[in-house]
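Protein folds are increasingly written down as discrete tokens. With that in mind, we are printing a sequence and the tokens encoding its fold.
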Amino acid sequence: MREREGYRENLALLNERFPDKDVLSVADVAAFMGVSRDTVRSRIKISPVTHRVTKPDLARQISL
């Protein structure tokens, strides 16, 4: 499977912004993307159990 364009750049930005976290909350993602929490919940696949998303998974979802 090929990496999506921009994946590594997005992952680097996430690692820079959240160096001490492996998984991000809805509030973290909203702050990073500059959107509301409702927008994150509707557009980003978040774990239904933990209500969080890993940085690599988020980087994949926001890449082209």
In short: The CA atoms of residues 23 and 51 lie 10 Å apart. The longest helix spans residues 7-17. DSSP finds four helices and two strands in the chain. The chain has a mean pLDDT of 96.
